[in-house]
């Protein structure tokens, strides 16, 4: 894609802003995002879906900072949410409730009530038990809840087991062979109104094939369900499209949609309203995390580079052994050394990159790449480390969209000991 985050004149820029200037002004660790990169990612989906009745529901779990949600809301996106907290964030960012879909296996009654009260677009229901509870909650409120059932197409998305969700043996969705019966049940409940069908087969998917497999399986179900007189207005194919972290070559959204639409048309389903729930592919490569080198610690077998960002800021390497590129903000012309880049947290799992050749000195800034998705939104306070600050860049403008947390922020909800 276009180089929204790239080197110019010997240093790293995000659009027309020098990363070094932002690091100096706001300190580190610091997340910096390109709004133009996010808009371009949405546009790639929109191009692929041109001329179709389609809605892109940004899966905000990938990055739910309010200003980022505003960027997507203004670009015409709806939202895929998974909690009452995400619902409030989406509303706060100006999302139209009818453009929100509510996913997740464990919605509480309180979350259902609130979503019904604001007029949410659809509940993506994940079990029969949830159907019954939602029916009850909706009847109590004298409304009908719009529902789609998340079906489990049992395809292998060929991704990391922790982020693969379409296989039979995981907690998500309703098994393919139980789906028809679940739809009959849903259609019989007075508090529900069946509006669609959905699936989501996993995350960081780098080929078209698993999507086509899932689509075929879902269309088989659509035909069986409609044959029973239960009309489905929309088809939600979830998210999951991967990004390039390190040498992967995922299809572009346009290419993916070309293949899927061709299959939909061939089977006579081209008229259907389409929903999708991309997260990572809209924000992942739109962001970096800037960190300062604190110490170099050469050893006999390994050399460590200790930086001020850690697993609480960037949990993906520790959780999934994920690879994130690490590059100097201002490259030096010295010969590089091979380092393990690690954070200050007291865990051996607190590493950001292994065996990275870098020419750096203490005080230098490094940029951790592909940090727009599932980094800040998964950040924690472990070791009483406040969450990093976030800056959004658009052209030559930069705005602080999240101030760095202070220690007082961290213990605000705590109470001093009052017992004897
Ligand atoms: N829809 C549903 C129902 C989902 O569960 C997810 C992600 C998405 C959409 C968005 O998927 P995406 O387009 O972002 O792949 N923390 C992990 C990723 C977990 C994904 C969970 N579900 C990571 O850092 O790789």
TrEMBL record:
Question: Known InterPro entries for this protein?
Answer: Ala_racemase/Decarboxylase_C, DAP_deCOOHase_LysA, De-COase2_C, De-COase2_CS, De-COase2_N, Orn/DAP/Arg_de-COase, PLP-binding_barrel
> Record's Gene3D superfamilies?
Alanine racemase (3.20.20.10), Lyase, Ornithine Decarboxylase, Chain A, domain 1 (2.40.37.10)
For this protein, what reaction is catalysed?
A: meso-2,6-diaminopimelate + H(+) = L-lysine + CO2
Enzyme class (EC, first level):
lyase
Residues holding substrate? 280, 316, 320, 347, 374
Q: Which catalytic residues are annotated?
A: 346
Q: What is its EC number?
A: 4.1.1.20
Q: Which residues carry this modification: N6-(pyridoxal phosphate)lysine?
A: 61
Q: Which residues form the Orn/DAP/Arg decarboxylase 2 C-terminal domain?
A: 34-372
Q: Which PROSITE patterns match?
A: ODR_DC_2_2
Question: Which keywords annotate this record?
Answer: Amino-acid biosynthesis, Decarboxylase, Lyase, Lysine biosynthesis, Pyridoxal phosphate
- At which positions is pyridoxal 5'-phosphate bound? 240, 277-280, 374
Q: Which cofactor does it need?
A: pyridoxal 5'-phosphate
A biological process (GO) of this protein is: lysine biosynthetic process via diaminopimelate
SUPFAM superfamilies from the xrefs?
A: Alanine racemase C-terminal domain-like, PLP-binding barrel
Which stretches are annotated as coiled coil?
none
How it assembles, according to the record, is: Homodimer.
Q: Explain the purpose of this protein.
A: Specifically catalyzes the decarboxylation of meso-diaminopimelate (meso-DAP) to L-lysine.
What this protein is called in its record is Diaminopimelate decarboxylase
Which organism is this entry from?
Tepidimonas thermarum
């Amino acid at each position: 894609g276009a180089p929204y985050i790239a080197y110019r004149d010997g240093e790293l820029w995000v659009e027309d802003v020098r990363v070094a200037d932002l690091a100096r002004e706001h300190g580190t660790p610091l997340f910096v995002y390109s709004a133009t990169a996010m808009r371009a990612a949405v546009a790639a989906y929109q191009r692929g879906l041109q001329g179709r009745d389609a809605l892109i529901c940004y899966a905000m779990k990938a990055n739910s900072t309010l200003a980022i949600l505003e960027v997507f809301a203004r670009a015409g996106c709806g939202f895929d949410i998974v909690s009452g907290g995400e619902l409030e964030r989406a509303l706060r960012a100006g999302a139209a409730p009818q453009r929100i879909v509510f996913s997740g296996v464990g919605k509480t009654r309180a979350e259902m009530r609130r979503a019904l009260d604001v007029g949410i677009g659809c509940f993506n229901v994940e079990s029969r038990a949830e159907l019954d509870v939602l029916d009850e909650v909706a009847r109590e409120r004298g409304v009908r809840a719009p529902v789609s059932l998340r079906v489990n197409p049992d395809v292998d998305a060929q991704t990391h087991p922790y982020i693969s969700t379409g296989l039979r043996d995981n907690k998500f969705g309703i098994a393919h062979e139980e789906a028809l019966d679940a739809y009959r049940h849903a259609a019989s409940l007075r508090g529900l109104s069946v509006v669609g069908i959905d699936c989501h087969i996993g995350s960081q998917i780098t080929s078209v094939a698993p999507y086509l497999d899932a689509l075929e399986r879902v269309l088989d179900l659509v035909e069986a369900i409609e044959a029973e007189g239960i009309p489905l207005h929309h088809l939600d194919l979830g998210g999951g499209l991967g990004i390039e972290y390190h040498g992967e070559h995922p299809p572009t959204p346009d290419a993916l949609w070309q293949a899927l639409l061709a299959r939909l048309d061939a089977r006579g389903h081209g008229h259907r309203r389409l929903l999708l729930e991309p997260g990572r592919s809209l924000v992942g490569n739109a962001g970096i995390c800037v960190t300062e080198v604190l110490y170099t610690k050469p050893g006999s077998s390994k050399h460590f580079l200790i930086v001020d960002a850690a697993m609480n800021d960037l949990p993906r390497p520790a959780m999934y052994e994920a690879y994130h590129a690490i590059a100097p903000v201002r490259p030096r012309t010295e010969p590089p050394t091979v380092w393990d880049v690690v954070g200050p947290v007291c865990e051996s799992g607190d590493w950001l990159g292994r065996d990275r050749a870098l020419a750096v000195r203490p005080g230098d800034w490094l940029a951790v790449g592909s940090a727009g998705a599932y980094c800040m939104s998964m950040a924690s306070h472990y070791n009483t480390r406040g969450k990093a600050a976030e800056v959004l860049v658009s052209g030559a403008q930069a705005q602080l969209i999240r101030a760095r947390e202070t220690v007082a922020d961290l213990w605000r909800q705590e109470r001093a000991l009052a017992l004897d």
